[in-house]
């Protein structure tokens, strides 16, 4: 197991009283997995990740990360991980390449290897030609990719990525996905938070959903989608008058729920909609009822979210870095802690 956490709790003291950001999280991440950590704003994702990356200490609970005990050997954990914070980790005045090399050297990489590894990553993440640029002159997307280079340059076996694709254009996102897949192929384990559900769906082997500081669901994207809502089926009837008869047939199907009729359309949800369809069509046909069309929609991760948390993840938070937390002030802490 690359990460094994039990009962992780983190409470923040604030002027308005304690904030229970993480309230007893158990999680396991196997070697070589890409695990997506999803949840609405303020759910506790960043706090959990920062605990696992040794940047803040848990109020209680235990964890083994990359083979080292989080409490007893935080230095061992730090040496084996890469962490790309939401808020970025480069200094505006610094030269991009220098930042990368300095960062790698903190992890014991010699200068020559650090330059070679850094420049290779620059090429792979479309930063070619920017090695000597001051960080503040880079575009937002370039700076984000520079953050990612910083997290990868020392070739960690476990990589924490906190919303790595926020602020990237679609092409850069796709490029980063490809890169993440390659990292996994080389044996790395990836723990990633994202607000983009399509990203989680396409990239992650497994997804953990957190809400109000607690894990509320865990599974492959496919399992989660099946478990929560089932497929949505819409039957277009040639004659709206047949809707009650069709509804009766549909209600008899095992696992069918959420029946709705709107004029000549009967809709419902059912697990594995594609598999029940042939039998259903035969039953409808046997009663002499004519259909104009049938649609089956697989549930999306957003459906999962809505069912699990009562909130949609598809809000506008992906388009800004706000998130409402202390991302500005955490910058320094993260840099110091890693150093
Ligand atoms: N340093 C802090 N001091 C006080 N409260 C904090 C601190 N850091 C986080 N919190 C609070 O803890 C809760 C969880 O925050 P966290 O940043 O972990 O959520 P998140 O799931 O990462 O959210 P987002 O998607 O917006 O980044 C929030 O209510 C947040 O305001």
UniProtKB/TrEMBL annotation:
Single GO molecular function: ATP binding
Biased composition (Basic and acidic residues): 329-339
Ranges annotated as biased composition (Low complexity): 319-328
Top-level division of the source organism's lineage: Bacteria
Compartments it resides in: Cell membrane
Residues annotated as domain ABC transporter: 3-237
Major subcellular location class: membrane
InterPro entries noted in UniProt: AAA+_ATPase, ABC_transporter-like_ATP-bd, ABC_transporter-like_CS, ABC_transporter_ATP-binding, DrrA, DrrA1/2-like_C, P-loop_NTPase
Record keywords: Antibiotic resistance, ATP-binding, Nucleotide-binding, Transport
Topology relative to the membrane: Peripheral membrane protein
Pfam families on file: ABC_tran, DrrA1-3_C
Region (Disordered): 311-339
Record NCBIfam families: drrA
Family: Belongs to the ABC transporter superfamily. Drug exporter-1 (DrugE1) (TC 3.A.1.105) family.
Name the UniProt record assigns to this protein: ATP-binding cassette domain-containing protein
Organism: Kribbella deserti
